[in-house]
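TA notes, week 10

Several of you asked for a full example with nothing omitted. So below is the full record: C-alpha cells for the whole chain, then the designed sequence directly under it. When grading your own attempts, check the secondary structure regions first.
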C-alpha cells in the first residue's frame, strides 16, 4: 500500500513510485526540498534509467540510474532524497539504495533492519565527510556561502556543489514480514528521536495498519512536514 499527504504544509514536495517491471517491483520515495522540481523529476524518470541497465545486475543498475539522475539534476537548486527498493518477482530479497534521510525499515528473521540515514545532525560520519568536501556545520546544517541542508547526501541542490555526495548506499536484505519506506515526516522530522518515533510506527504496522493509516497517524500528531509511506507486506 502507498499513501501521501501534505500535512500542515500548503505545498507538497514528496513523490513516490510503485512500478511493476518484468523482473520485479521498483519502489521509491523522494522527499523534495527547496521546491518539488527534483523530486518530481525522479518520480517521472528514475525507472527508465534503472530498467535500461537491469541486464547488468541490480546493484549496477542502481549505480548507473543514480549517476544519470544526478547528471540531469546537478544544475537544479531544488533537491531531493531518494530511497529506492527493488524486489525480484516471488522473492523476499530486497535491494535497497538510499541517498538522504528518508528511512527504510525492513523486518528480517534477525529483527528490524534500519537503512542508512545521511542526516548530519545525527550521523557524525556524514557530517565529517561533508566538512571534508568543503562545507561547514552550523546549527544542524551543512552550509556553504550561507545556505544549508540537514543532509550530507542528496540529489540536486546545486548551491552546495561538491559539498554533497550523490553516491547511494546499497544493501541486499532478506525480508521476513514487511518493508517500510517513508519520508522523515512519517517519523521525526527533527531527527532528534528517530528510534522512538520508529518504535511507535512499527507497533502500528504489527497491529495491521496499512500505509494510509500510518500517514493519517503522522498528520494527526501533527507532523509539520509532508508525509509519504510505502508499506510492503510479504
Amino acid at each position: 500500500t502507498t499513501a501521501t499527504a501534505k500535512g500542515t504544509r500548503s505545498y507538497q514536495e514528496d513523490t513516490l513510485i510503485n512500478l511493476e517491471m518484468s523482473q520485479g517491483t521498483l519502489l521509491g520515495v523522494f522527499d523534495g526540498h527547496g521546491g518539488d522540481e527534483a523530486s518530481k523529476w525522479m518520480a517521472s524518470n528514475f525507472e527508465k534509467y534503472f530498467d535500461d541497465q537491469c541486464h547488468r545486475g541490480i546493484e549496477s543498475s542502481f549505480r548507473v540510474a543514480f549517476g544519470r539522475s544526478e547528471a540531469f539534476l546537478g544544475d537544479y537548486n531544488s533537491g531531493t532524497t531518494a530511497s529506492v527498493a527493488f524486489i525480484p518477482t516471488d522473492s523476499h530479497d530486497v535491494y535497497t539504495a538510499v541517498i538522504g534521510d528518508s528511512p527504510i525499515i525492513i523486518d528480517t528473521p534477525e529483527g528490524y533492519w534500519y537503512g542508512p540515514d545521511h542526516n548530519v545532525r545525527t550521523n557524525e560520519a556524514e557530517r565529517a565527510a561533508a566538512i571534508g568536501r568543503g562545507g561547514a556545520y552550523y546549527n544542524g546544517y551543512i552550509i556553504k556561502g550561507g545556505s544549508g541542508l540537514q543532509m550530507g547526501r542528496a540529489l540536486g541542490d546545486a548551491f552546495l556543489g561538491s559539498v554533497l555526495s550523490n553516491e547511494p548506499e546499497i544493501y541486499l536484505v532478506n525480508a521476513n514480514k514487511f518493508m517500510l519506506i517513508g519520508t522523515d515526516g512519517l517519523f521525526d522530522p527533527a531527527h532528534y528521536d528517530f528510534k522512538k518515533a520508529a518504535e511507535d510506527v512499527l507497533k502500528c504496522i504489527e497491529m495491521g495498519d496499512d500505509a494510509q493509516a500510518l500517514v493519517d497517524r503522522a498528520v494527526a500528531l501533527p507532523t509539520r512536514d509532508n508525509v509519504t509511506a510505502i508499506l510492503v507486506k510479504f
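The mean pLDDT is 94. Use that as a sanity check on your answer.
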